[in-house]
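Budget justification, computational time. The allocation requested in the original proposal was used primarily to generate structure tokens for proteins on the priority list. As evidence of use, we reproduce two of the resulting records. The first is shown immediately below.
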Amino acid sequence: MKDRLRQQIGSALQACFDNNTLHSGVVPEIQIEVPGNPEHGDFASNLAMAMARAERKAPRQIAEALVAALGSCDFLSNVEVAGPGFINFTLTPACWYEVLDEITDKQDQYGLAEFGRGRKVQVEFVSANPTGPLHIGHGRGAAVGDAVAAILQAAGFDVQREYYVNDAGNQVATLGRSIWMRLRELNGETVQFPEDGYQGGYIRELAAQLHEEEPAAAGYAEPEAVKRCAAFGVSKVLTWIADDLEAFGIKFDNWFSEQSLYDRQMVEIELAKLAKKGLSYEQDGALWLRTTDYGDDKDRVLIKSDGSPTYFASDVAYHMEKFDRGFDKVIDVWGADHHGYVPRMKAVVAGLGHPPEDLEVLLIQMVNLLRDGQPYTMGKRSGNFITLREVVDEVGRDACRFYFLMRRSDSQLDFDLELAKRQSSDNPVYYVQYAHARVCSINRNAAEQSVPLPESQRTDLSGLVLAEELALAKLLARYPDAVAVAAQNCEPHRIVYYLQDLAAQFHSYYNRQRVLVEDAKTTQARLYLVNGIRIVLANALNLLGVDAPERM
């Protein structure tokens, strides 16, 4: 609708230039917005105000000239100049009927866009250290990353989901040492558990499994024992993580090992490229990256004076390798505590000749877990945090994913377990899913009464005369825009907001109006409308990885 209106306005503007009503020849971008107040029409444009300086005229004069040039238009029922020079447009009901035809015709393809034009985008998310089960915070990052990937795919991008396995470094050695200590305890030894060791029942689980599979492991000398325990622990924890993510509805296209960077000498290769470009230098026996040249507050160490690489070195090599793979844009989903890392990574990207915006970092804030409004902090398995699997098992995948996406990812989130399980309108996910199930129930009732469902393009929709029916059709027409804006900003919460608006309007309509009425024409038109709603609800829920149930 916006494109159609934009084309009509553009023709009117050219007509004004042709007949010398307007003289500048300047054609600014034609912005079209939905007014906050429905009484101001369906769409509004500030084009006249944008042209005021070039035309040296009052915006209202320009607006009046444009409206006159529009003349009569078969899809506009009213056009008026408002305020300092806004042009408000009201479309005919037939325009909104066309939207319902489009939805019915496209089905699950409605809302898809092509502005991504197949550009390759990688979304890297979760990437939790393989040293323990996923916790509730990882769950929010998982839901955000997966939804962002799905929305970008819907917008026409070629998307890859990747998990970066941090299987190199001190944390892996610490895991191995922690398992080894518990393994020795199983053999009856009294050991001094290290202060920096990993706590929680899962370490004992791992030790018991290793003891069963390889009883001799406890007797290995320390270097070999720690190495063996670490390898075993990483393998088992990654299996837990993959299982938990699958239960959460998430599958990755690629699992990328940090250790593989060192095995393939990629850290040395990529750092050599930086040196060749003059982006690194040696000082005090260490190798530094010139990140201050690209906006960072200080240069960063890549190789320490003892010759060992920093975590930053492997991160730099990893991100360079991402662009080597041909991705046009890289999106990282990180915990909010990594915000200080963003400028230095963007500096790396800029130094390599890419626009800094080719790397986008989404920061995930904390989740405050509640039970009936009170803080809930006890974890059964970990001892000091709530695992994602505990929450998924208790409230279900759909509720988990929906709640994690209800707010901007960089704002804190309150997640009440009891509310998430409640089957009432107080529960946001239930309220939205029930709207879909309600339409399915209407369809079943229609079948029981031998009322046929309407066919695409052949239904007389003139029976949709109520303001709330047209309002629903208009809201359905805005779904493709909601997807596009969510994709452009990597903000899946916008889809949640849209779903809540659509569900609220539908429930309100349903509570006031019957769909199956005595008049056959009205029944068919209303069935056509509510099934358009059903299709869009299912499409939007699918982007969030949430089911659209037919019964509840």
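The second record produced under the same allocation is shown here.
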Amino acid sequence: MAAEENKVQTGSNSAETGKPDGDVSGNTEGPAAIVPESEKQAAAIARMKELAGILDEAGKAYYAEDREIMSNYEYDRLYEELEALEKETGTVLAGSPTIRVGYEAVEELPKERHEKPMLSLDKTKDIEVLRSFVGNQKTLISWKLDGLTVVLTYRDGELAKAVTRGNGEVGEVITGNARVFRNLPLRIPYGGELILRGEAVISYPDFEKINESLGEQEVRYKNPRNLCSGSVRQLNNEITARRNVRFFAFSLVKADGLDFRNSHMEQFRFLQQQGFEVVEHLLTTAAELDETIAYFENKIRHYEIPSDGLVALYDDIAYGESLGTTAKFPRNAFAFKWQDELAQTRLLEIEWSPSRTGLINPVAIFEPVELEGTTVSRASVHNISILRALKLGIGDTVTVYKANMIIPQIQENLTQSDNLPLPEHCPACGMPLSIHNALGAETLVCENPDCPAKKIKSFTQFVSRDAMNIDGLSEMTLEKLIGRGFIHRFGDLFRLKEHRDEIMSMERFGKKSCENLEQSIENARETTLPRLLFALGIPNIGVANARGISQAFDDDLERVRHAGEEELKEVPGVGDVMAKAVAGWFENEKNQAVIEDLLTEISLQKGSSADGAAGEKGIGGELKLTGKTFVITGSVSHFANRRELKELIEQQGGKVTGSVSKKTDYLINNDALSQSTKNKTARELGIPILTEEDFLKMLE
């Protein structure tokens, strides 16, 4: 029995190798044993339980925790295997992902039950299956957007409620956040109760900008869908407002007293008339389907809104409703997922890319191939677990594709040499690495707190305009240079010429870019003490305080380096906390070594405090803000924090309060279009809203 059980187990795993259950590989002593039907059934059900657990964990991570532990391709493959086993066995287990809709809503926001359950859509990648669905019906084809589904309710023309999809029956109430969606109408002409559904999304350009702006300790989002999910479910809608969330309507649930002539197309037109952006849609027939699909396939290559396929919906409302639903799917709509274009190539290397969070991420580098109209030569492997599952080795033949026609992924390893060693030391700092296991996914981690990859923000500040002003070193470029071990401390930036050939071979970094960077570095070798003090990233020291300290010590770096707390506190605008931070920074031996190394590459111009950075204007001159009252909101970029901006205003005779009122003269907010309460109040009272740039011009 034990031997038979072992064979059954081998058979149950055979789905992963593509072999039938009766084919027990590895038996060299004769033909494979024939597994009894009852045992085959038991093995199949055991495999179904295993698949359900894997898919459940992946789905929970993706939908509820905004992280990704497997590729879309792998998820679909396992899901289809589970469906096939359920059909083969005639058994569907309780809680199976094929019958359960979504996952439970998280706890941070109030929950509410939907008036009508929100079902998933049946799906296919075969256009002929879709054509069969269309049949003789006029059908709407629209984008299947990849964001977070939201249900909106309007009463008396006002937005009354917004609820996320949640598990399809119960969602999270996010009304306050929906009010700051970038394109959502807060008042509409229709005065009755209106209920509609749509997708909250963040565009690819906004996704990239937001990721680049994240703080040193913050984990970057893997895709716009995860970022949108986190943005929509914020407890503070100011954060949501800064994320540029947009809403696209895709379904009208209720609008009593109106005649839509039995047409979903008419419903879309009505929603557009109310001020909503609706998903792009085309009316098609079975005969026109190829042309319609081709239109969307061509457009997605440059489409800025994330989409993972298309939705087909019968235009005839009554006909569609007469079909009813299955336990999970409505019968009037169908999802079409892109048929991935595959290319075969050879794995050249694995690049281990360090990040600010300490994760060392594997990136596959392969011989360039053409996919979806572009040349692709690299793809993220995400973590060690996925890398091991693919059994990768240098020189292996792999198939690659673009998930949703956009994100390069490895689909399959045809060679499976499985001989890839893991690095033992961090490529950025050289310290030993460790393996962490979190929720079933193994990751490689650098635990050195002084790893330069973790301090990417400090290097970003060092090269910024108000600091050393080195053009051509974006945060992304700095990450690449640090990851290759070219930069360990600030002085290394001035020695990048030593790596010229390697830098020129980097992606998107040719000869001209390299020459421009080298010239910018040369220009930065002569600088001023205010710029240097700001560039060093000393806690609480922004451009304004850097200039004040420089003036107080006659632009003498040695005096600043050896100044004590008491001496520093005598500088106007420098309090106890700031004095302690400056003195402590220069007392640190590692920081002293950084300064000594840096001074071998740069020279400081004496008597140049007046040349300070852009944010320092107005200091020490006439009090230009006397009698003016300001309110500051949102993030700042020219100052270390809002407190420093407040200090500058007060130094110039102004006053800063916490809320906008009739007594306020100016509101400072870099996001002038924000729908925050302070912005709304300022607009209602006719109070000017200034960006930092506007404010600094006032002081010139």
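A brief technical remark on that second record: The longest strand covers residues 343-354.
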